[in-house]
Model the fold of this input.
Amino acid sequence: MAIEERIPTGSVGSGVRAAPAAAPGWVRGVLLVVESFWRWYRRNWRATAVSSVLQPLLFLLAFGLGFGSLIAARPGAEAATGGVPYLVWLAPALLAMSTVQSAAFEMTYPVLSGFKWQRIYLGMAATPLTGAQIALGHLLWVAAKMTLTGAVYLVLIALFGGAASPGVLGSLAAAVLTGAAVAAPVMAFSASREDEGAAFNALFRFVVLPMTLFSGTFFPVAALPGWVQPMAWASPLWHGTELARAAALGTGTPGAVLGHLAYLSVLLAVGAWLSVRLFTRRLAP
Done:
């Protein structure tokens, strides 16, 4: 299976026109886009191993084991983490953080490149695939990739003692949902750009980095000043972190879990809708 459909043609000079390729079904078209990205990734996965696995592992070692050992030495420190070791409390949040960082990167320059530099979207659009299939196929691929790299990271977390229960598997699902909820609106933002991507620097500096630092990843949001806390609550990473910790540690009320799921689902749906509209507009014949 491949993006290109075989088109029967007549012999050279016979005057027989090539028959148009049959349009794939809607779902099959999305899966064809996913397959296209998978084929590339299967040959080039080493190029992304540092950002998707090694960098989160360094966070785990530096904060979970290094900084965590200092916290453990303080009397009563586990009260702030719900009575569990800092590494166990931190691990689900790092899983969510890694998917958010990966999603933000995957949906900035690679998306702009698909329109402007490598123009792989234009190649796909030259087939019977629609702009909506291309957009959703790329988004689905990023979610699949986050699941794959997140599973590898989850194994590393378990090896270093950060998995306290089988509930960490639910943390992976929460992390992937969080990453997708960030990926979709960032994808729409990138699809709207006509320049060289200068705005991406501001996106990483003023959105992704503060979201990483002030979403309850490394310390409870309650430790922040009161006027900062509402900004943390608006962060998708905070919702994802709360979901991931609820799954891993067995905390969280049903109402809170449903609220986090609803927030992330709405963000994902709106971002996907905007991406489909922008891809359809830019790839229109």
In short: The CA atoms of residues 214 and 252 lie 20 Å apart.
